[in-house]
């Protein structure tokens, strides 16, 4: 089973027919497996290549160098996290990955960065990803029958987090651990860029795991728990994980978690409920939900 592949080349805010067609395709993907691949999303391919090269260079440095951007707290959710410092499936052995986590990058530019060129490249990519996420949200709003800027205006960036991820090769001591434990994402949508190595898997509603095979040039999109709550489980926040792969070397991916501003109240949308479908979840505050989920993944927290 391949996840649906949708071409965003036809995205045009002034063409209602084209937008409605995209909304139908997105609806079919997200009410099904909850994952889709998008091509022609508008992020320059050469920028994607540049950011992957910079990520490889960053992670190849000595530990002390990486820790110059040290991780402070779940509240800040910013900085370097080493291998086995996080467990996306709380209670299970820690994840075999390291990460550079960057929440609200706009507000971090004046920090002491070891490499300002790296900072500027990260920021350029972050802004491109956020613009792409806004386009996807406008398509959601058509399908979900809310004003076009309904989602865009509650995603200013405060809870938007970009993560460079590096999954080192398997070693004899890592038996039974996952690259990333089984989890759902926490917020609205995730843009995931993966290299050609593979290992990402998504679970369907029957409990079967399926590989999310890398498609050159396409971005994997999935929705998180808050979207599932907004849509009364019409769009599915599907469980996924990363299997470590033997004999294939390092894997790199970049995840952009586009999540609502902390004060956002996430309430079941009118188009997703009726007498036969009462709201499945009570209203929740985006900030509290996301912070609790992050705290649960930190070992010893
Ligand atoms: O690296 C990947 O392919 C997926 C990572 C992921 O699901 C996450 O960090 O939430
Ligand atoms: Fe995830």
TrEMBL record:
Catalyzed reaction equations: 2-oxoglutarate + O2 + 2 H(+) = ethene + 3 CO2 + H2O; L-arginine + 2-oxoglutarate + O2 = guanidine + L-glutamate 5-semialdehyde + succinate + CO2
UniProt-listed Enzyme Commission number(s): 1.13.12.19, 1.14.20.7
Keyword ATP-binding in annotation: no
Pathway the protein contributes to: Alkene biosynthesis; ethylene biosynthesis via 2-oxoglutarate
One Gene Ontology term of the molecular function aspect: metal ion binding
Transmembrane residue ranges: none
Residue ranges annotated for the Fe2OG dioxygenase domain, each copy included: 158-260
Name of this chain's protein: 2-oxoglutarate-dependent ethylene/succinate-forming enzyme
Record lineage: Bacteria, Pseudomonadati, Pseudomonadota, Gammaproteobacteria, Cellvibrionales
